[in-house]
Amino acid sequence: MIWFQPESPRWLVQQGRIDEARRSLNLFRKQGHDVEGELQQIILSAELERKSLEKAGYRQCFRGFSRRRTLIVLGSNFFLQATGQAFVSLYGPIIVGQIGGIEVFNYTLISASVGFVGYLFVLALNDKLGRRAIMIGGSAVQAISMFLVAGLGQVSSQSKEVTSRHCC
Questions:
Q1: In terms of domains, do 153 and 132 share one?
Q2: Cα distance between residue 77 and residue 80, in whole Å
Q3: Of 55, 91, 114, 139, which sits most exposed with the smallest number of CB within 10 A?
């Protein structure tokens, strides 16, 4: 879906494409919003950022207040990978196939549909809820999903014995 997503007004300003940034802001904001005022703020911010990077370069990311922001981003990305989400995404169908109860193809369709709906949700509510709330909510949903996969995928030898004794 990335091909259908409009460019960020901030990125467009950084590329010198001011008119396209204005159109993009009009697309993102409700009618009656001060698009010109926001565009001027983005232009000013981009200019200040450009001047700041000319002076300090990327070393500035690890100094002062920026160090905290950099560590938050690095920590978030580390924990996104450390949760095992990529493992569950790749091997989820295999795990579901071993558990039984739902066909692997149906699981794949459900998983893709949930991902698509989640993407639309984030796209629609990003400006209203903010990134932090969406990240915390997404992390909670992800944790619950992984606990469910772990709980449903756990089959002990005792449960197999009990099932086989009472089966026939």
A1: yes
A2: 5
A3: 55
Structural domain total, the chain: 2
Q: Kindly state the tokens that stand for 121.
A: 């949700």
Query: CA end-to-end span of the chain, whole Å?
Result: 52
The secondary structure of residue 8, as a DSSP letter, is P
Q: Distance between CA 103 and CA 145 in Å, rounded?
A: 18
Give the tens place of pLDDT for each residue, 73-89. Answer: 898 888 878 877 777 77
35 Cβ contact partners less than 8 Å away, ≥ 6 residues apart? 22, 25, 26, 29
Q: Hey, what are 50's tokens?
A: 């450009």
Which of these, 3, 13, 2, lies nearest to 44 by C-alpha position? 13
Q: Tell me which of 52-56, 117-121, 124-128 is least confident.
A: 52-56
Give, in order, the Cα–Cα distances in Å from 32 to each of 29, 35, 37: 8, 8, 12
Contact 39, 9 (CB under 8 A): yes
Q: What angle do CA 121, 125, 127 make, to 5 degrees?
A: 150
Is the same domain home to 92 and 151? yes
Contact between residue 98 and residue 153 where contact means Cβ atoms under 8 Å apart: yes
Prediction pTM value: 0.45
